[in-house]
Amino acid sequence: MAVYAIGDVQGCYDELQALLEKLDFNPPRDRLWFAGDLVNRGPHSLETLRFIKGLGDAAISVLGNHDLHLLAAAYGKPLKNDDHTLDAVLEAPDRDELIDWLRHQPLLHHDAVLGFTLLHAGMPPQWDLALARQCAAEVEAVLCSDAIIDLLDTMYGNNPEQWADDLVGHKRLRFIINCFTRLRFCDAEGRLDFGSKGPPGSQPAGFYPWYEIANRASRDLNIIFGHWSTLRDHNYPGIYPIDSACLWGGALTALHIDTGQPERIEQPCPGQQTPGGY
């Protein structure tokens, strides 16, 4: 059995199929881990969702910010002008099945045997694995309940900007969602910065990539994540970014993770949008 972690697909279904052909992917034998952002901006969000859902136990996907945005739209929040690529999902005859499947996906996946943790964006420095799993479970429970509409109505926003154990209610859930699906930079105390979307070095003084914070509680983990398409040619111990900007004309990346030494396999992509998005 081979296990591959795959970066942000964002509706680039054809590129995903080309990558899986390159991997000689066999669903009865192999397993895929998707780093979230399955949908939006690329041309085939509907086909991508149907395919990954149809893989059943052969695939695991964590939720990204674009996936949560689709859930919000499905539950009544208006789409932005550049979200027309989600229309096919929202108008599909199997829309309800796809949305129900999506809202039951996790924010974090940890495999103790393989020794890897999968999430979409990042973790604040105060979180170790146990706390991260607890926080993920809190949001996942609401997404799977009748309270999902209230959560999706209140999840947008950049505050609170720092973790505290006594955060409660919508503020706590919003912070958790922001870390798992939007985090790139923070300061040494874990205050989040969402204004910077470029590569390391483009952020304001006093802020750092979340994984570079000294003595962060998750430093013993091997973390695979997407979201950060401008993070290129990266080499940091235990950190495996795999969003290689397929949507923007880069590549769709698979990380082979069951071989002892992770190996990157890339499928070049023609690009569906002009570089510069998030």
Strand tally: 12
Termini Cα gap: 34 Å
Biggest sheet: strands, sense, closure? Answer: 5 strands, mixed
> Radius of gyration in whole Å, from Cα?
17 Å
Please mark out the parts with pLDDT under 50 across 5 or more consecutive residues, or reply none.
Answer: none
User: How many independent structural domains?
Assistant: 1
List the helices and strands and how they pair.
Blueprint: E1 3-6, H1 13-23, E2 31-34, H2 45-54, E3 59-61, H3 65-74, H4 87-90, H5 95-103, E4 108-111, E5 116-119, H6 129-143, H7 148-154, H8 169-182, E6 185-186, E7 192-193, E8 208-209, E9 223-225, E10 239-241, E11 251-256, E12 263-268
Parallel strand pairs: 1-2, 2-3, 5-9, 9-10
Antiparallel strand pairs: 1-11, 4-5, 6-7, 6-8, 11-12
Helix pairs in contact: 6-8
Question: How is this structure best described in words?
Answer:
With 278 residues, the protein is α/β, with parallel strands linked by helices. It has one domain (3-268): Purple Acid Phosphatase, chain A, domain 2 (4-Layer Sandwich). It has eight helices and twelve strands. The strands form three sheets. The protein has a five-stranded mixed beta sheet, with helices on one face. Strand 4 (108-111) and strand 5 (116-119) form a beta hairpin. Helix 6 (129-143) packs across helix 8. The protein is globular, with a radius of gyration of 17 Å. The mean pLDDT is 94.
What's the short version?
By secondary structure, this protein is of the alpha/beta class. The protein is built from eight helices and twelve strands.
